[in-house]
Each structure stands twice: as C-alpha cells, then as structure tokens.
Amino acid sequence: MKRREFITLIGGAATSAWPLAARAQQLGMPVIGFLDGQSFDPHLMAAFREALKDAGYIEGRTVAIYFRSADGQTDRLVTLAGDIVGRRVAVIVTTGGGAAALAAYAATTTIPIVFVNGVDPVTSGLVMNLNRPGGNATGVYIFQQVLEGKRLGLLHGLVPTAALIAVLLNPTNANFQTQLRGVQDAARDLGQQVSILSASNERDLDVAFAAENQSHAGALLVGSDPFFNNERDQVVALATRYSIPAIYEGREFAMAGGLASYGTSLSDAYRQAGIYAGRILRGEKPADLPIVQPTKFEFVINLKTAKALGLDVPPGLSASADEIIE
Questions:
Q1: pLDDT digit string (tens) for the chain, length 326 residues
Q2: Which DSSP symbol is given to 250?
C-alpha cells in the first residue's frame, strides 16, 4: 500500500476509532491516544506497534489505539488534544513535531504523555530535566536540527563540483534559527556558497524547487522538519524531476529514492515510544523514565540514484556509509 493511500485510509478510520476504543475500555482493555502533528507514517507506525507487541500489547487484542492527526495544521492540535484527553485514555503518544507534545501537555497534567520530537523538552517546559522528567511527560528527543552542518559537509563531499548548494528550511520550525546558523557556520568553514529556500506548505515546495532550478544550484540540502518528512514522497519526486542531488534527514528519504541521508533513526525513535508506552501501561511513571537521546547517526547513500544523476560517489564516503542502497 502506498503511503498516501495508507494516510487516507487511517484518516477515514479515525472517525470510527472511538467506538472501538470505547468498547475496549468496557472490556478493561487500555486505550492509547495517538496524536500526530502531521499525518501517520505506516513505516514508523509499524515500529511503534512492534515495540508494543514486544511489551505484550497487541492492537485490537490487548490494547486499543485512538488516532488523531492534524495533517500539518497546528491550529487544530489544541482541539484534537482536548478530544483525546476527554476520552480518558491511559497514555497519550505524540509525534510529528513539538507542537503536538505541547498541546497534549497543556491539555492534561495527569494522563501520561510519551513524545517523539525535535524540540528541546527542557527549554520548552515539557520536563524538568532529561534524567528525571518529574511530571507527566517523557519521551524521545531527536535533535536532528543540530546536524544540518554535518549534512552540508557530506553533501559537499558527494558533489564537490557544486559551486552553489541550495538549502531548504521551514521558517515556521521552532529550530529554524539553530538550523540556519548551523548551515551558515558549516558553509563558511567549507568555503561553500549556499542559498536559503523556504517552504512550510505543499505549494511552497513547488515554488522553492522552481527557484532552486533557476539559481542553477548544484546540490540541495533538505533541512530536518516534520513537514518535509510528512511530504517525503513529494520532496523526493521534485528533486528527481529537477535532477538535483539532495541529502535529507532520515533513511526513509533515501529508501524513497533520495540520494543520501544523515541523521538519527526515526524508526528507532518510534520504537522507543512504543517501549515507553508499554512500560507506562504496566504501571511505571513518566516522571521516572529518562528522556531518550539518540546516540547513533545513520549515513545512507542510494547508489541507484547516484548513477541516475551521473555521480561517482567518492570511495571514502562509500566506505563511511552505514548503508548503501544498490
């Protein structure tokens, strides 16, 4: 099943999800409220469900999941979070950006929350500290935004002849300034000229790629952002249409046909969210579960895409890659 078809299916199923969840509660089965700031990703959700299964919770048999997604419309998150809280779920899991976690946190101080996001949970007020969260929230802090400089360096190595590298960022991202500084600092160290492009919706993406094409940039860095990840298929398709070598935040982009990716594993993050949700359902408190910070970073190269672009990947970079897609 294609990702878009899955999103449409699960979005339609959400309207009937609560009667099923209500019946689960009547049978004494716990219900997880799942709030996504973007749209549900089947690949990542599979990792979450697998971790729950390992903890003894199988959806439809020993646990029910009530899904709500904002589809990138952050102004809907407060209402969606309130809806989930009103269902008296046992735990809330949030993904798709820090705004979803903050909306859930504002909606309840008692229901446990497990988040996956790239917003610093301490400075945003979600937790007291990383080792002892202290409240009703815990989760995974995926600090992808600090890796933009590293991605630029890898892209510079993959396409050393690129006089200009375009950088696509989302100006509405809470980490935008951090990302921008990281790119500018790395560009200065590399002696690489860069141009900054902005996009925060689907129409912006078309405009940004057209601008990149007109600038004759030799390569593209797509910044870390929940919106870009949600629109992964479109982003990779646009890069393919304009024959632009691009690097992205996660392995999923390279699997979809992107040239390369570097970052933390989103699948591992969702899997950890499933582990924590399972532990909380068994009685542990989020206040005692440390914030998980990824320590492994994956560099993936898609050789098939490189060949289609007429690129010869330097042997040194091939050797340093964690995965080569043939």
A1: 444 444 434 444 444 456 666 666 665 789 999 999 998 888 899 999 999 999 999 999 999 999 999 998 999 999 999 999 999 999 999 999 999 999 999 999 999 999 999 889 999 999 999 999 999 999 999 877 779 999 999 999 999 999 999 999 999 988 899 999 999 999 999 999 999 999 999 999 999 999 999 999 999 999 999 999 989 999 999 999 999 999 999 999 999 999 999 998 889 999 999 999 999 999 999 999 999 998 888 999 999 999 999 999 999 999 999 999 98
A2: S
Q: Assess contact for 122 and 133: CB atoms under 8 A.
A: no
Which residues are CB-neighbours of 45 under 8 A, at least 6 positions away?
A: 270
- Burial (CB < 10 A; 0-12, 13-18, 19+), residue 111, is buried
Q: H-helix or E-strand containing 97?
A: none
- In sequence order, which residues have a C-beta less than 8 Å from that of residue 223 and are 6 or more positions away? 145, 148, 167, 168, 169, 170, 173, 179, 183, 249
Provide the token pair at 156: 């510079």
d(CA 158, CA 165): 12
Three-state DSSP at 264 gives coil
**CA–CA distance, 269 with 65 (Å, rounded to integer):** 18
Entry pTM = 0.85
Helix (H) or strand (E) holding 39: none
Sequence-distant (≥ 6) Cβ neighbours of residue 102 within 8 angstroms:
119, 124, 125, 126
